[in-house]
Design brief:
InterPro entries: FadR_C, HTH_CRP, TF_FadR/GntR_C, Tscrpt_reg_HTH_GntR, WH-like_DNA-bd_sf, WH_DNA-bd_sf. Keywords: DNA-binding, Transcription, Transcription regulation. One of its GO terms (molecular function) is DNA-binding transcription factor activity. By secondary structure, the protein is mainly α. The protein contains eleven helices and four strands, in the order E-E-H-H-H-E-E-H-H-H-H-H-H-H-H. The chain folds into two domains: 87 residues, Winged helix-like DNA-binding domain superfamily/Winged helix DNA-binding domain (Arc Repressor Mutant, subunit A, Orthogonal Bundle); 141 residues, Four Helix Bundle (Hemerythrin (Met), subunit A) (Up-down Bundle), CATH 1.20.120. Helix content is 69%, strand content 6%. The relative contact order is 0.10.
């Protein structure tokens, strides 16, 4: 069974059931350790056949959301510990509210990834990295401009890295990154720190210094996390 989506594309009903169950888990309608309704009840509840529900449950188990038990309702897993990259994609796509804690998680992840793919990009395509940063004087000093520029910079740097896995990971955040970045860059101090970082990265890229490029990126990523955490602490103390 398929359902019509925008743009004329077809979406399998099992995809819709999967997304509805993920939403129910994320909103704690089904908290960690609880059980889903039996397959028959889920089929009746969503108005589909049991094979459709079974297909959705199989994908949920594959991605770490649940543990399917033969003859018993599925158990909801701790998806932070038992999930995979697809779990992360679904979390991002269903994160209606961008929480401070979730932004901290992503900034921590960026510390691990960005310095390496930036080093690799400078090593493999130094002139192209320079070109990405050559027009910094045209960057408007508002949060939206910084968010768009930073997102495009990250994607282009991963494209210039010889390892395609980095681009796949970064692309996973496509529906979420700008929303997060606009919040981060709404603070003038954060924009100023990134302004200095972009110029530092441009200077080391001009020199073709791959080791220093990695160091500059790591320090900037660590600074971003520090600034964000300080901001959240100040807001909590108000």
């Amino acid at each position: 069974m398929t359902l019509e989506k925008k743009g004329g594309k077809k979406e399998r009903s099992s995809d819709q059931i999967e997304l509805k169950l993920i939403k129910a888990i994320l909103t704690r309608e089904y908290p960690t350790g609880s059980t889903l309704r039996p397959e028959r009840e889920l089929a009746e509840y969503y108005g589909v056949g049991r094979p459709t529900v079974r297909e959705a449950l199989q994908r949920l188990e594959r991605d770490g959301w649940i543990t399917v038990r033969k003859g018993h309702p599925a158990i909801v897993n701790d998806y932070w510990h038992q999930g995979n990259i697809m779990t992360l994609v679904h979390i991002i796509q269903n994160h209606d509210d961008v929480t401070d804690e979730f932004i901290s998680y992503l900034l921590e992840l960026r510390i691990s990834l960005a310095p390496v793919y930036i080093r690799n990009a400078v090593a493999a395509h130094q002139p192209k990295v320079v070109a990405l940063l050559a027009n910094l004087d045209q960057l408007n000093p508002d949060a939206d401009s910084y968010a768009v520029f930073d997102w495009e910079l990250q994607k282009n740097l991963t494209r210039l890295s010889p390892n395609p896995i980095y681009l796949l990971i970064v692309n996973s955040f496509d529906s979420f990154y700008l929303k997060m970045a606009r919040r981060y860059f709404s603070i003038p101090e954060h924009r100023e720190a990134s302004w200095h970082y972009y110029h530092e990265l441009l200077n080391v890229a001009l020199q073709g210094d791959v080791i220093e490029a990695e160091c500059v990126a790591r320090k900037a990523m660590e600074k971003s996390l520090e600034l964000w955490r300080n901001r959240t602490v100040l807001e909590q103390d108000k």
